[in-house]
Amino acid sequence: MDGFQRHFDSQIISYGKQMIVNLVNQKGSEKPLEQTFAKMVNSMANGMVRYVAFDFHKECSRMRWDRLQILMDQLAEQQDEFSYFLVDSDGKIVTQQEGTFRSNCMDCLDRTNVIQSLLARRSLQAQLQRLGVLHVGQRIEEQADFEKIYKNAWADNANACAKQYAGTGALKTDYTRTGKRTQWGLIMDGWNSLIRYYKNNFSDGFRQDAIDLFLGNYSVDEVEHASPLHVKKDWKFLALPIIMVVAFSMCIICLLMAGETWTETLAYVLFWGSASFGTFAIILYNGKDFVDAPKLVQKEKMD
């Protein structure tokens, strides 16, 4: 709790009032995170920090992305209170921004980017109306050319951040880029999620090592001969996946090319299916040997 308190104290000093917008699921594995976050904010009892929880996936399920307006309406008064920074032509400060929105989801990439883009557009609209670029009542959405540039800029920003952190472009960028959720967007989100799962488990360790080395978290020892990055893999690292793929392929072939009798086909399917399932179970049991874990900082901790 002390670290939590000190973190928000520093945020308040730097940026003013804090509006926390928690977008995680309020059920399943993400629920304890939402509950703990809310509990810590309440325990802090700081009037400069407010907390709003919005179950993004539940509210926007079944393509009901128009329900994001519920959250925007909930935040509108606070955003107007925060205002924005504005100086006149003489350099005199006209208005100052007095707070920030601190939105989060699990990785603070996909859901967060959607909400931040909506908040940014609302703030920009208020500024353009104040400067007379837009008349009162005019909306940015009605300016087709600018709206296209704005949405693409935020979608590109989301992709750049996501590729750096998760290894793929951001999810939900079809909404950020077009203002609509599409079936193709859902398919691409599924594909990117699969790629993220693979990279997170089988290639991110080396990338974390690169970051640790760049940041100085790992100090190279001059007398250290063999590089800690070169780790000899056990035989099962290659053998088990090959066996599993072959067994699964044979199971599919047996299903497609049935034998003379159904009992013969069933016997082959059960044999190869059991082989693939058993091999997969062994891989799961020895999961740490297959995952690409960071080696540099992990090695220092072990030493």
TrEMBL record:
The keyword RNA-binding does not apply. It holds the Pfam family Syja_N. It comes from the Eukaryota. It catalyses: a 1,2-diacyl-sn-glycero-3-phospho-(1D-myo-inositol 4-phosphate) + H2O = a 1,2-diacyl-sn-glycero-3-phospho-(1D-myo-inositol) + phosphate; a 1,2-diacyl-sn-glycero-3-phospho-(1D-myo-inositol-3-phosphate) + H2O = a 1,2-diacyl-sn-glycero-3-phospho-(1D-myo-inositol) + phosphate. GO terms for molecular function: phosphatidylinositol-3-phosphate phosphatase activity; phosphatidylinositol-4-phosphate phosphatase activity. This is Phosphatidylinositol-3-phosphatase SAC1. Its EC number is 3.1.3.64. Keywords: Membrane, Transmembrane, Transmembrane helix. The chain crosses the membrane at residues 237-259, 265-285. GO terms for biological process: phosphatidylinositol dephosphorylation. InterPro entries: SAC_dom. Residues 1-167 form the SAC domain. GO terms for cellular component: endoplasmic reticulum.
